[in-house]
Amino acid sequence: MEDKTTRNLVLRNLAGKRTSAVPIWLMRQAGRYLPEYRKIRRAAGSFLDLCYSPELAAEITLQPVRRFGFDAAILFSDILVIPDALGQHVTFEEGLGPVLEPITPLNPMLPNALDRFRNSSQNKLGAVYETIERVANAKTDNCALIGFAGGPWTVATYMVEGGSSRDFQKIRRWATSDATSFELLIDVLTEATIIHLNAQINAGVEALQIFESHAGVLDCFGFNKWVIKPTRRIVSTIKRKHPHIPIIGFPRGAAAQIPVFLSETNVDAVSLDHSVSLNWAASVISDSVPIQGNLDPIYLLGDPGKLPFHVDRVLSAFSNRPYVFNLGHGVIKETDPRSVERLVDIVRNYNLR
Ligand code: CP3
User: Fold this and answer.
1) Ligand 1 pocket member 97 (CB < 6 A)
2) Rounded to an integer, what distance in angstroms lies between the CA atom of residue 142 and that of residue 23?
3) Is 169 in the pocket of ligand 1 (CB under 6 A)?
4) Is 233 noted as a catalytic residue in this protein?
5) 76 lines ligand 1 (CB under 6 A)
6) How far apart are alpha carbons 183 and 88 in whole angstroms?
7) Which residue is catalytic, options 33, 52, 129, 158?
8) CA of 97 to the centre of ligand 1 (A)
9) Spatial distance between the Cα atoms of 208 and 269, rounded to a whole number of angstroms
10) Which of 30, 43, 69, 305 is most buried, most CB within 10 Å of its CB?
11) Burial of 320 per CB tally in 10 Å (0-12, 13-18, 19+)
């Protein structure tokens, strides 16, 4: 009998089965490049309020699916709901991005943080799980619902730097000069991430992505300690309860460490950023591993006539393996929605060849 996994193109590819039609979804497919998002965003007040309003967040999750017919919906939320639920002060400011009251080795915010988090999963984060239930009820089977979290290292960068950073000096100094206390922070984040992802699965997500967006600032020693090890613990703990939920890793900037990331963490699939060479990836990553990515989102702002060429390059590199089309990073906010429509069209037409 056909189950949901065999009907859904994204889930089929993530389960390691190549399909003749290539599925497509985009990181940051919901967001400021869409007028229908900006309208709700203006009415909602703060960004976090929006993340904790199930009705609005469910609507925003579905907006790009309705407009473009993507094969997956990604939960509308943020990686920084975890520090918020741990009790750190988090806001999103216009033009600045996230602003957090930074934690330091002397003031690491750790005592009782996980207790606060567990309370929060029943309260604040309960709204995120309700969003998932709403989307799961509203979507069709051919659209997969993807849940997510940031990788502990990436979330920690925001918590320690107090927001986005250019050189990540504070966190790199802490991690290298006092690894023992830094590890306590990573452990708390790893635990909170496991709780949050399990709750997302219980609410109805069908796949998970772990965004390790700042993996690229670590050397190989740090990458092993702060990215590979926590990811392995997250994957193995979730797999014990939910062996059939595919987990996609996105170790952005990991470059030549991608093969060791794959073999050591046991993620099911890897999302490649656009710095990764297509030929290199196709030759060093086993054909049985599903790949996602990696068109540079900048092409959506460039000459529309050149888009088919660049999409074709990516599609042909991964034509013999399980594969999900995506960008190498999120949709840029200046993107014209018509470019995204064109992109979906190109990928769909490729399917017909
Ligand atoms: O459509 C989707 O991808 C789902 C929702 C989603 C958001 N953030 C919504 C969002 C997802 C999956 C994320 C992940 C996220 N958040 C990451 C990892 C992916 C990546 O981009 O590397 C990171 C690092 C964050 C942290 C974050 N959130 C930053 C740095 C910012 C400000 C900069 C920016 O790009 O806007 C945000 C804000 C944010 N998250 C917005 C949205 C739609 C914009 C908020 C607004 O409306 O002002």
Assistant:
1) yes
2) 10
3) no
4) no
5) yes
6) 18
7) 158
8) 9
9) 10
10) 30
11) exposed
Cα distances (Å, whole numbers) of residue 93 to 99, 133, 211, 329 = 7, 29, 22, 22
| Per-residue pLDDT tens digits of the chain, which is 353 residues long | 456 667 899 999 999 999 999 999 999 999 999 999 999 999 898 999 999 999 999 999 999 999 999 999 999 999 999 999 999 999 999 888 999 999 999 888 888 999 999 987 777 899 999 999 999 999 999 999 999 999 999 999 999 999 999 999 999 999 999 999 999 999 999 999 999 999 999 999 999 999 999 999 999 999 999 999 999 999 999 999 999 999 999 999 999 999 999 999 999 999 999 999 999 999 999 999 999 999 999 999 999 999 999 999 999 999 999 999 999 999 999 999 999 999 999 999 997 56
CB distance 304 to ligand 1 below 6 Å = no
What's the token pair of residue 85? Answer: 């639920």
Question: Is 41 annotated as catalytic?
Answer: yes
The single-letter code of the amino acid at 220 is: C
- What is the DSSP secondary-structure string of 173-207? HHHHH-HHHHHHHHHHHHHHHHHHHHHHHHHT-SE
Q: How far is 124 from 101, CA to CA, in rounded Å?
A: 19
Instruction: Pull the structure tokens for residue 131.
Output: 């969003």
Phi, psi of 141, rounded to the nearest 5 degrees: -65, -25
Residue 37 is a catalytic residue: no
- If DSSP codes are grouped into helix, strand and coil, which group holds residue 91? strand
Determine contact, residues 41/61, Cβ cutoff 8 Å: no
Which residue, judged by its Cα, is nearest atom 38 of ligand 1? Answer: 97
Examine the residue annotation and report whether 338 is marked as an active-site residue of this protein.
Answer: no
- Tokens coding 337: 């929605």
Collapsed DSSP state (helix, strand, coil) of residue 315: helix
Pull the structure tokens for residue 320. Answer: 């013999």
Q: Which two tokens stand for residue 29?
A: 């497919």
Instruction: Evaluate whether 235 touches 267 at the Cβ level (below 8 Å).
Output: yes
Please report where in the chains the tokens 């703060």 appear, as a residue. 46
Angle, CA of 86, 123 and 151, to the nearest 5°: 40
Ligand 1 neighbour 92 (Cβ under 6 A): yes
183-211 burial, b at 16+ Cβ within 10 Å, e below that, comes to bebbebbbbbbbbbbbbbbebbbbbbbbb
Residue 332 near residue 298 (C-beta atoms within 8 A):
yes
